[in-house]
Amino acid sequence: MLLDRIKIKFQYWLPRLLLTRLAGWVADKQAGWITQLVVKIFARYYRVNMQIAQNSDLASYLTFNDFFVRPLRKEARPIIFDTNWLALPADGTLSQLGSIHENIIFQAKGQTYSLESLLAGNSILSKLFYNGLFATTYLAPSDYHRVHMPCTGVLHEMIYVPGDLFSVNFLTATHVPNLFTRNERVICVFDTVIGPMVQILIGATIVGTIETVWAGTITPPREGIIKRWQYPSKGDEAIILQKGAEMGRFKLGSTVINLFTEGSVQFSPELKSDSVSCMGQAFAKIHIPVATSVAP
């Protein structure tokens, strides 16, 4: 369609980094009645369900970011109790999920990308997930924007990958080649009972900030270089996150990609592309526990 082509062209012409910096600056400002008005308009336009928020009073949020990363009531998102099942990590839409064909991941109709490009050229890490499974969860503006753990994991490594800031939605996924490998992202590698598991937070236009619970704000600043942090697997300094625990958040949201090794899990048969994702509900059943570790 002509309109779609115009929208995609506009994506390339937009000053994406400038817009993102500006949006992040504005969203973090306390602007009194202006902030309250913006929050109310946003909540009404996107039909945000404030009944499940820990604080449902729109007028009480001092900044737009405070509103955007609002926590939910504990009972709003119960975590699946069965230890044989992984929990969905975020509210949103499962835009794609399925098998990784050797090292190729399906992005959208006519578009694919490789594990190596997604994982910043780390061939050793990439090979662990050859022929495994992936799931891509898109967080819409109305969604809850904190990301949680599908299963209990010990943090092994975090990698920040600088990149572009294309919008992430169905249209761009269909028309922008290698969208998720072009955009800025934070790769989190965990050791779990099913072996290595990767959870990736993807940046996008006007995603002002990506944070993790153990390191705080990862971006900004945007220095244009890959950064790596490694963590101990044992001892007092080991970072262990329980199933269902918060692991990160978006200040203005985007997408989460999960990677699982071959034979480790089997997605819930109820899930398919375009399924609604509700954090804490059944994600994947543990199939064959494996002993593979990402630790050297």
Q: What characterizes the major β-sheet?
A: 9 strands, antiparallel
Could you tell me the strand content as a percent range?
25-35%
Total count of helical runs of at least 4 residues: 8
Cα-atom radius of gyration: 19 Å
The outline comes out as globular
Please sum up the structure shown.
By secondary structure, the protein is α+β, with helices and mostly antiparallel strands. The chain contains eight helices and 18 strands. The chain has helices at 2-13, 16-27, 33-45, 64-68, 115-118, 123-127, 170-175, 179-182; strands at 85-87, 92-99, 104-108, 111-114, 133-138, 146-148, 153-161, 185-192, 195-202, 209-212, 216-219, 227-230, 240-241, 246-251, 255-260, 265-267, 275-277, 282-286.
Task: Characterize the structure shown.
With 296 residues, the chain is of the alpha+beta class. The protein has two domains: 2-68, no CATH class; 76-286, no CATH class. Helices cover 21% and strands 31% of the residues. It is built from eight helices and 18 strands. The strands form four sheets. Strands 2, 5, 7, 8, 9, 12, 13, 15 and 17 form a nine-stranded antiparallel sheet that branches. The longest helix is centred in the first third of the chain and has 13 residues, at 33-45. The model has no long low-confidence stretch (mean pLDDT 87).
In terms of topology, how is this protein built?
Layout: H1 2-13, H2 16-27, H3 33-45, H4 64-68, E1 85-87, E2 92-99, E3 104-108, E4 111-114, H5 115-118, H6 123-127, E5 133-138, E6 146-148, E7 153-161, H7 170-175, H8 179-182, E8 185-192, E9 195-202, E10 209-212, E11 216-219, E12 227-230, E13 240-241, E14 246-251, E15 255-260, E16 265-267, E17 275-277, E18 282-286
Antiparallel strand pairs: 1-18, 2-5, 2-17, 3-4, 5-15, 6-14, 7-8, 7-12, 7-13, 8-9, 9-15, 10-11, 10-14, 16-18
